[in-house]
From TrEMBL:
The keyword Transmembrane helix does not apply. Keywords: Amino-acid biosynthesis, Aminotransferase, Cytoplasm, Pyridoxal phosphate, Serine biosynthesis, Transferase. This is phosphoserine transaminase. Transmembrane segments: none annotated. It is an enzyme of class 2 (transferase). The keyword Chaperone does not apply. GO terms for biological process: glycine biosynthetic process, by transamination of glyoxylate; L-serine biosynthetic process. Pathway: Amino-acid biosynthesis; L-serine biosynthesis; L-serine from 3-phospho-D-glycerate: step 2/3. It comes from the Bacteria. InterPro entries: Pser_aminoTfrase, Pser_aminoTfrase_methanosarc, PyrdxlP-dep_Trfase, PyrdxlP-dep_Trfase_major, PyrdxlP-dep_Trfase_small. It catalyses: O-phospho-L-serine + 2-oxoglutarate = 3-phosphooxypyruvate + L-glutamate. It comes from Sedimentitalea arenosa.
Length: 384
């Protein structure tokens, strides 16, 4: 039977998995210090870019001898830049458990034509990391944004590996502990956990990654937008805020505001705690309802940012149509925007639980999910 609409509503119905909700303190007026209409190479612009790099280092706990650069084209730009610069010198293992990881497989196999072993897991599962040969270069995604599955920790990655690890951490950075000693390349985008703007990518390089850059030149051409070395030496300026091409200083200001907010909620620990609290609220709901479950099969690999759910009710024949209808109902009511599963993922819902989302909003939204589910089941019985 249909149930009555709940009374309480989320204050912010934005549960998209990217771009994600802005920090709760966001207000366009707070970006008024952006040096707009000035050169990004003027002292004021360079200082802002350097500050973005140094605050990223401080909050994420990135070691002092790692390089952090702001690069073009968001996470995709950062990750492909790493692949195109670093890979090809030794065999590669490509690990994929959802669509973005699968995209990097396509890059390695079809574009770069590398000597690559491809290991994949179904949506909801992860590759057996104990079976990975880390003496090869290994590319993987820390958190599968479209499957809601994450790497539990870095234990499987040996400290004395001969290969490099290239980690797409775009929906993990600022929400999960990243073991820097196990990661040679880490990339992310401002638009995810921090609720920043897209189009700018972060590229973090270990000393071993820099060593590779300076000792190996790939056989293929690199466009200017990808070039990290000149005359066999790292272009150090990129890692001090002298970006390859022109960044948006408005986006930089927005990122600085997000970093400021991150610090105000307790830095990385506070950000993780907020994401965990959001995910716990969803977990409690799932435990209390027998018609919904996590896509991630093992709780140890369950994401605390992109939480992916599937409907398990036997009365549902067309899972995709049902999930779409539930998401549409919640959007129409102004309760939850953009929570349908990713287009390549199994049918279901994806609720962003990263720290810019308030737990009170998740808690206010979930009774509406119950309402929407029951309304759609009722609609099914009327058709039958
Ligand atoms: C794991 C992962 N990799 C890469 C991307 C692409 O990010 P961007 O569009 O910021 O380049 C996304 C975006 O959702 C993602 O979730």
């Amino acid at each position: 039977m249909a149930i009555a609409q709940p009374v309480a509503r989320p204050v912010n119905p934005r549960f998209s998995s990217g771009p994600c909700a802005k920090p709760p303190v966001f207000d366009l007026n707070r970006l008024s210090d952006a040096p707009l209409g000035r050169s990004h190479r003027a002292a004021i612009g360079k200082a802002k870019l350097l500050s973005a790099i140094e605050q990223t280092r401080e909050i994420l706990g990135v070691p002092a001898d790692y390089k952090i650069g702001i690069v073009p084209a968001s996470d995709t730009g950062a990750f492909e830049m790493a692949m195109w610069n670093l890979l090809g010198v030794r065999p590669v293992e490509m690990l994929a458990w959802e669509s973005f990881g699968a995209g990097w497989v396509t890059d390695a196999v079809k574009q770069l034509k590398l000597d690559a072993e491809v290991k994949t897991a179904e949506y909801g599962e992860i590759v057996d990391l104990a079976g990975v040969d880390f003496d090869k270069d290994v590319c993987f995604t820390w958190n599968g944004t479209t499957s809601g599955v994450r790497v539990p920790n870095g234990d499987a990655i040996p400290a004395d590996r001969a290969g490099l690890t290239l980690c797409d951490a775009t929906s993990a950075a600022f929400a999960m502990d990243l073991p820097w000693d196990k990661l040679d390349v880490t990339t992310f985008s401002w638009q995810k956990v921090l609720g920043g703007e897209a189009a700018h990518g972060m590229l973090i390089l270990s000393p071993r990654a820099v060593e590779r850059l300076e000792s190996y030149a790939p056989a293929w051409p690199l466009p200017k937008i990808f070039r990290l070395t000149k005359g066999g030496k790292l272009i150090d300026g990129i890692f001090k805020g002298e970006t390859i091409n022109t960044p948006s200083m408005l986006c930089v200001e927005d990122y600085l505001l997000a970093l400021d907010w991150a610090r105000s909620v307790g830095g990385l620990r506070g950000m993780i705690a907020r994401a965990d609290a959001n995910t716990a609220a969803v977990s409690d709901f799932v435990a209390a309802h027998d018609w919904i479950d996590f896509l991630a099969t093992d709780p140890a690999t369950r994401s605390n940012t992109s939480v992916c759910l599937k409907f398990t009710d036997a009365r549902i024949d067309d899972g995709a149509a049902f999930a779409k209808a539930v998401a549409k109902r919640l959007e129409t009511e102004g309760i939850a925007f953009d929570i349908g599963a990713y287009r390549d993922a199994p049918p279901g819902l994806r609720i962003w639980c990263g720290s810019t989302v308030e737990t009170s909003d998740i808690e206010a939204m979930l009774p509406w999910l119950d309402w929407a589910f029951n309304a759609e089941i009722e609609a099914l019985s009327q058709v039958a």
